Amino acid sequence: MWRTVWGNLSASGAREAIVTPEYGPGYFTGQSCVTKEWSPEALWAQTLAASAHLREEFAAWEAGRPPTGQGPSPALADLPAPPPPLPARVCTLPTIDVSRFVAGGAAERASLAEEWKASLAEEWDAAFSGVGFCQLVGYESLLPASAIAALREAATVFFETESREVKMRSHIDGLLGYLAIGEENVAATVGAANRVADKVEGLNFSGYGSELNGSRGWRSRDPCEVPWLEEPFARALPERLRQAAAEYWKAATALMHVLLELSALALGLEASHFGPYYAEPGCTLRLAYYPPGPGEEGQLRYGEHTDYEGFTILQRPVEGGGEGNGGLEVQDPRTGSWAGVPSLPDTLTINIGDLMARWTNDRWRATRHRVPAPTAGSAAAACGRLSLVYFTGPNPSMPVHCLPSAKCDCENPKYPSITLEENVQAKLLAAQRGAADGA
Ligand SMILES: O=C(O)CCC(=O)C(=O)O
Ligand SMILES: [Fe+2]
What Pfam families is this protein classified in (predicted)? Predict the structure, then answer.
């Protein structure tokens, strides 16, 4: 957990010095974490060399005494420039094959060999306790390639050929429905707003309204129905896209329920543990279209962030993960360096959101990720990129607190209970504040 030991290091341009038991001390600037390009060793050396005061604060923190909050330290003005950023790397995530697990219904899953299930559950737990991401294969019996292809095709036609006027018929409030370029600066949700808003267009389908757009609650009485199907913003979409999104929603929801059973087993809980929380789940399907071109100086396709909810089911185009190709990158939380994540055909990427990290008492990790701009003139910059992002989450108004599992150290919960709605709203407010001060 990050701890602030001393705020307002204004002499160095940093706002906070932070110390973590795992990664050592470092600095946050007003807009982004400069520590992310520094190795823990370099940070440690720089910090200690730069400020005797900070050293005292760190010692106080280690000894359990409160920080003095005094400052600024003149020595910090002389901080040497950080070392150059580490080159981006390509990282391979654990690949998990769920074909046997998803093949039948709950009864078939219950009859699978316990040893085999335990080993699958262990892989699942290890992926999310480690990097916080995995690549999923063998899911097609629930989310068939045809549902993916139909939605990719209809969404590509929408984003690439419809006029702004047609798109804006589905615009609501910049949160649900259509989002134009310039409406999101997602890095503001982690206090690292970029100078220029993200170069992305979006189409968000959600089962819930929110206070922010004046309509709260589950939109459908029947949880098997697609809750947003009759909403005016969905009705305003080309019919082929509305239907393709509805088919994808149903299939991805079915996959989510089975992955929740696997998650429960992985955390040492009854397979059905998550059922009541997900009867009217707080899911959002986000279609994200990143137009061609490198963007402006300082502009990303989608800035660094963690997802807000349970786990995310991400369907990406096939991409190599190389530097400058404008695809997904994840951050190594120990060093802050970024690595591209290749995407192979018939593979989904699954990652943990904040709420699930909190629900597991931080056993599972919500890892920062981003989509940088492609290099100017590259083949990647010549094409648009489409992702189908299904954010899964429990009923937005059901409080979640540390899961009753020894694996989550439930005797020592780190956080009070919270609802999905509160968590998401806190992030949105942070984003608004960050966007106002930052970008
Ligand atoms: O487009 C991608 O690969 C990632 C999108 C993403 O991280 C998100 O929508 O939260
Ligand atoms: Fe994300």
Answer: 2OG-FeII_Oxy
Task: Could you list the beta-strand ranges (E) of 91-200.
Answer: 95-97, 133-137, 177-179
CA distance 389 to 201: 13
Report the pLDDT value the prediction gives residue 427, as an integer from 0 to 100. 79
Contact 380, 316 (CB under 8 A): no
Residue 276 preceded by cis peptide, ω within 30: no
Q: What contacts 349, CB < 8 A, 6 or more positions away?
A: 93, 133, 134, 135, 136, 314, 315, 316, 328, 341, 343
316 lines ligand 1 (CB under 6 A): yes
Residue 15, SS3? strand
pTM: 0.79
**Minimal-distance CA residue to ligand 1 atom 3:** 328
Give the span between the Cα atoms of 10 and 31, in whole angstroms: 13
- What ipTM did this prediction achieve? 0.99
Q: Is the CB of 285 under 6 A from ligand 1?
A: no
Domain boundaries, the chain: 1-92, 135-438
- Percent of the chain at pLDDT exceeding 90: 56
Do the Cβ atoms of 114 and 271 come closer than 8 Å? Answer: no
Bond into 333 cis (ω within 30): no
Beta bridge partners of 359: none
pLDDT, position 148? 98
Gap from CA of 370 to ligand 2 centroid (Å): 7
Rounded to the nearest angstrom, the distance between the alpha carbon of 400 and the centre of ligand 2 is: 21
Which listed CATH number (2.60.120.330, 3.40.50.620, 2.60.40.10, 2.30.110.10) goes with 135-438?
2.60.120.330
CA of 326 to the centre of ligand 1 (A): 12
Which ligand 1 atom is nearest residue 327's CA?
A: 3
Ligand 1 atom at minimum distance from 387 CA? 1
53 Cα: distance to centroid of ligand 2 (angstroms) = 38
286 pocket-lining for ligand 1 (C-beta < 6 Å): yes
Confidence of residue 83 (pLDDT cuts 50, 70, 90): very low
pLDDT of residue 82: 43
Dist. CA 390 → ligand 2 center (Å): 10
DSSP tag of 400? B
Lowest mean pLDDT among 66-80, 230-244, 321-335: 66-80
Q: What is the pLDDT of residues 331-347, one digit of tens each?
A: 987 788 899 998 889 99
